[in-house]
Design a protein that fits this description.
The complex is a heterotrimer of chains A (323), B (264) and C (370). Chain A has 323 residues and is mainly alpha-helical. In chain A, 62% of the residues lie in helices and 4% in strands. Chain A has ten helices and two strands; from the N terminus they run αααααββααααα. The chains are: A mainly alpha (323), B alpha/beta (264), C mainly alpha (370).
Chain lengths: 323, 264, 370
């Protein structure tokens, strides 16, 4: 049991922000932190250190999200099930649209909704754009060339084997389409998660037919990520305390990652045994029972109506404007 | 004395069939008493608590609760299991393992809902237990936003909300700051005064006379080697040295008599 | 490897869900049958581990980073069905809370990373580990190669999903509506990064963890290896055989060769009839995927028949050359990897992140009693 006592939650040092009193520094920086971050630039210092630093940012980001979710605002008043359903409807609408103008207008609307939902608009824009859409933009740039997307060349660049090579209008449209669609889709998801407390989001998933067992596992995983993160940080710090100089280098850090995975799994396994006992001790027999019940109000029905109309306008407008 | 509510006879248990944790332990718990299990780390007191809570099952010997044998098979029965789980509550040493839900409110609701209590009654009870433990403002927090002491309070709330007759505490005051320790000691006294049966494992001897009226002492080879009132046990310096509860440099306890041999 | 919303057409997303949802349901049932309620916390904690593994971005020499998924590792430790649940949960978590990977494409991401990857990896692990004893270095090699190949097959699936978009979904004048790159571009781009770097990250994590558990936490390794003899002595009746790097490399090359025709979808229409049969996934115990692939194949085919001129300057030959080069590279890397692991596995591993926590399960059990 002693092995599980050591991790200290970072929350001990940093008290949770009180609703509405989030300091300005919380609204900036660290927002580029992305737990996937499949591609990114390397800076000095080992990546392990950066990931662990990032984890503190992750924690802040999550807490800040919970903070916004408790503010009074437009979306905060809506039933989470209605929000989840409308997210899916709007995402599908965004996915079928083929006109950049329609996508951009819809994106502008997300900014308005964010404003009325007590989400700081500057923060919202950064949070949405900093990672995926900008990355997407860079990645699709070469796709505007006639090599990849053949078509009508609007900016000729050079000729190759007698054929003109350049940026095609089809390529530009395609790049614009994907970047604006990605930005709109991410905005919709971020709006939902910023204005809905995590617990309610889980309850909404459950009441929309996601198996209870699956939702229970998601909730518990969420809870233990932060605990295990604390363990990893402790392991890293105790290792750094015993190593001179070497940890700066990525090679040593790589060794750390593979040996940590083993220790982490062992620790996790022991933890899960104990959690299992704690659940059994309070009468868990494999059947999940939820506390939260929702009441679908008239406001929710109205909201759903608005969403459906908005989705219809998006799709019809798109067809009117041509493809 | 009244009939025991929990009783172990000749219980032995070994982890993975290789690492012994309990060697032929026999003991009883009586209604309304405060029983302390004393022993060094690894002496078997946590394992005994898990036996008493029906979480691990003796490899030999028997465990009976409220007159019914408790075995893996008997707990398969839903009625038996529900009855037993609602009458015996366990506060784990590791609050991180015990507090597993995404929010404090859901955590406390877990037990009552599993027991089939209605939603409205559950919600009322949650508010009451939160107020009682002075943590009402934490209700909608996520566990990772809590300090160690707060987590302990939530863990205790999640057990108290089920209103069990018997409360098992594993190292309740370990790794807590002095103020929280003092609060918890007071809580145990209050719960006992309210008629609850308390069993706790500890190696913290400072407040033993407040939170126990009977003690069982484990040796490092996983047996019970002594039984007595806190004053009895604290007086036997040789015994405490032998079972690794104190060492030679420990100061004598304030409560202990200067004479190392007690008259019992 | 996380595809965000907006890169794939709704039809592809639906196909992804058509594969993912039944698989998750089957996985929940399978997992509940085997160890019942105990699995709830285990899977939750493993999902958290998968999330953390995905969070560690390992820098690679060209200045970008790659991360492992952990799906193969979880499959080795608790079986592929457990991995399906754990990785799906981690992905859901990322999609909803961090906008990493999308909501509509969730089914596709699950298919790649939570279904294809653990099953392929697990099959390879089984194949290479054979009947070796549990503490054998051969299992370490098997885990390493399984992680490497599993991640690469998942990356290949991702590349294919992205690469079919412009050919299937475009306007009348040829403007791609979703991801604009063709198979001839997505496959080399994805595979280069994953073959050369990310695959090794996954492989090293798998091999390193299995090696670590062999010396530090055998009981955890035994959970999914109940009938495997523990030591060499127990396995004495069987002939001991050291793995030939060439054999393993050959197997990896074989798999890649089998998968190659998938890529031909880009330059030609030949895929429609035969490719799903060539997918080795069915042999690996993956029955639902071919169904999903067949569905996908159906509408690829119809779109192909619509007479779109495939355009692009990517002839079949170019694709085949890049495939051959890619396969040679993988084969070479696998040979080196197996050789290296064979060497490393012989000597006791040197580094431990934390002395306090490593102390085997024995200590764990001991401390629990206190």
């Amino acid at each position: 049991m002693t092995t599980l006592d050591t991790p200290r939650p970072p929350a001990d040092e940093a008290p949770a922000p009180i609703a509405g009193k989030t300091p300005a520094w919380l609204l900036q920086g660290e927002m580029a932190m992305c737990p996937c971050g499949c591609i990114g630039k390397r800076k000095k210092g080992s990546f392990v250190e950066k990931t662990l630093d990032g984890s503190a940012g992750l924690l802040r980001q999550v807490m800040f999200g919970e903070d916004i979710a408790e503010r009074p605002g437009l979306l905060q008043r809506i039933d989470p099930r209605a929000k989840l359903l409308s997210l899916i409807i709007l995402l599908i609408a965004a996915a079928v649209v083929r006109n950049i103008v329609v996508l951009l207008v819809a994106y502008a609307f997300t900014l308005v909704v964010a404003y009325f939902s007590a989400v700081p608009v500057g923060f919202f824009i950064k949070r949405v754009w900093l990672f995926v859409p900008i990355f997407t933009g860079i990645v699709v740039l070469p796709a505007t060339l006639s090599f990849i997307t053949p078509g009508e060349i609007v900016i000729p660049l050079w000729t190759w084997q007698g054929q003109p090579v350049g940026i095609t209008s089809q390529g530009l449209t395609a790049a614009g389409l994907i970047v604006s669609r990605v930005a709109l889709s991410i905005s919709l998801v971020v709006l939902l998660t910023l204005t809905t407390p995590w617990v309610e989001l889980l309850a909404a998933l459950r009441s929309l037919g996601v198996p209870k067992m699956f939702v229970l596992i998601v909730g518990m995983a969420y809870r233990y990520i932060f605990l295990l993160l604390g363990s990893v940080t402790d392991m890293y710090e105790s290792r750094r305390a015993r190593t001179v100089g070497a940890v700066k280098h990525d090679k040593a850090a790589r060794e750390f990652v593979s040996s940590t995975a083993g220790a982490l799994l062992g620790k996790s396994h022991a933890l899960s045994e104990e959690v299992h006992q704690a659940m059994i001790a309070r009468g868990f027999r494999g059947d999940v029972k939820a506390l939260k019940t929702f009441a679908f109000t008239r406001a929710d029905a109205f909201y759903m109506l608005v969403v459906v109309i908005a989705a219809a306008v998006i799709v019809l407008g798109d067809q009117q404007l041509g493809r | 004395m009244n009939e025991p509510i929990l009783e172990c006879i000749d219980v032995s248990y070994a982890y993975l069939d290789k690492f012994p944790a309990l060697e032929r332990v026999s003991m009883q718990v009586h209604a309304g008493e405060k029983l302390a299990l004393l022993g060094a780390n690894g002496s078997g007191k946590s394992t005994l608590l898990k036996v008493l809570d029906g979480l691990v099952f003796p490899q030999s010997g028997s465990f009976t609760a409220f007159g019914e044998p408790v075995t893996e098979e008997s707990l398969e029965d839903e009625q038996m299991s529900q009855g037993f789980r609602s009458r015996v509550g366990f506060v784990f040493q590791n609050s991180d393992a015990q507090v597993f839900s995404p929010s404090v409110r859901e955590e406390i609701a877990f037990g009552p809902l599993q027991m089939g209590m209605g939603r409205d009654e559950t919600l009322t009870r949650i508010d009451e237990v939160l107020a009682m433990l002075d943590i009402a403002e934490l209700a909608d927090r996520a566990p990772f936003q809590l300090s160690g002491g707060q987590k302990k309070r939530v863990a205790i709330a999640s057990v108290l909300v089920m209103n069990p007759e018997v409360l098992l505490f594993d190292e309740p005051t370990a790794a807590l700051d002095p103020r929280t320790q003092e609060w918890l000691t007071g809580l145990i006294e209050d719960l006992s005064a309210a008629g609850k049966t308390i069993v706790h494992a500890t190696h913290d001897l400072d407040v033993l006379d407040r939170i126990a009226d009977r003690c069982l002492v484990f040796s490092e080879d996983h047996r019970i080697v002594a039984e007595g009132t806190p004053a009895d046990i604290m007086g036997q310096r040789d015994l405490l040295l032998d079972v690794n509860l104190i060492h030679h440099h420990s100061r004598p306890f304030g409560t202990a008599t200067t004479d190392p041999v007690t008259t019992a | 490897m996380h595809i965000p919303d907006g890169y794939l057409s709704p039809a592809t997303c639906i196909a992804g869900y058509a594969v993912a949802v039944p698989m998750i349901i089957i996985a929940s049932k399978k997992v509940q049958e085997t160890v019942k309620v105990r699995n709830v916390p285990t899977l939750a904690v493993l999902a958290a581990v998968a999330f953390l593994i995905m969070m560690f971005n390992v820098p690679i020499p060209d200045g970008t980073t790659a991360h492992a998924v952990g799906a193969v590792l979880i499959a080795i430790l608790l079986g592929p069905w457990a991995a399906v649940i754990a990785v799906s949960v981690a992905l859901l978590f990322q999609a909803l809370l961090f906008g990493d990977g999308g909501v509509l494409v969730y089914g596709v991401n699950v298919t790649n990373m939570a279904i294809i990857m653990p099953f392929v990896g697990y099959a390879i692990y089984k194949l290479i580990a054979g009947d070796s004893h549990l503490t054998s270095p051969r299992r370490v090699v098997a885990a390493g190669v399984a992680g490497y190949v599993g991640l690469n097959v998942a990356a290949l699936a991702t590349a294919i999903e992205l690469g079919i978009q412009p050919d299937l979904f475009h306007t009348a004048d040829g403007t791609p509506l979703y991801a604009p790159y063709h198979l001839a571009q997505t496959i080399p781009a994805m595979m280069l990064a994953h073959l050369v770097v990310a695959g090794f990250v996954e492989g090293i994590i798998c091999a390193g963890t299995v090696a670590y558990l062999q010396r530090a936490n055998l009981p955890l390794l035994q959970v999914n290896h109940k009938d495997v003899p523990l030591t060499e002595a127990e396995a004495a009746l069987r002939v001991k055989k050291r793995i030939s790097p060439w054999l393993v490399g050959g197997i990896a090359v074989g798999i890649m060769v089998l998968l190659t025709p998938l890529g031909l979808l880009a330059p030609g229409g030949a895929f429609g009839e035969d490719a799903p049969d060539e997918l080795p996934l069915g042999d690996l115990g993956l029955n639902a995927v071919p169904e999903g692939m067949a569905r996908l194949n159906g509408f690829w085919n119809s779109a192909v028949l619509n007479g779109y001129d495939f355009g692009g300057d990517a002839p079949v030959l170019g694709y085949l050359i890049s495939a051959v080069v890619g396969i040679l590279i993988v084969g070479g890397f696998v040979v080196v990897l197996v050789w290296g692991i064979n060497k490393v596995a012989r000597k006791p591993a040197a580094t431990d992140p934390s002395n306090t926590d490593d102390a085997a399960h024995a200590d764990d059990a001991g401390s629990r009693t206190g």
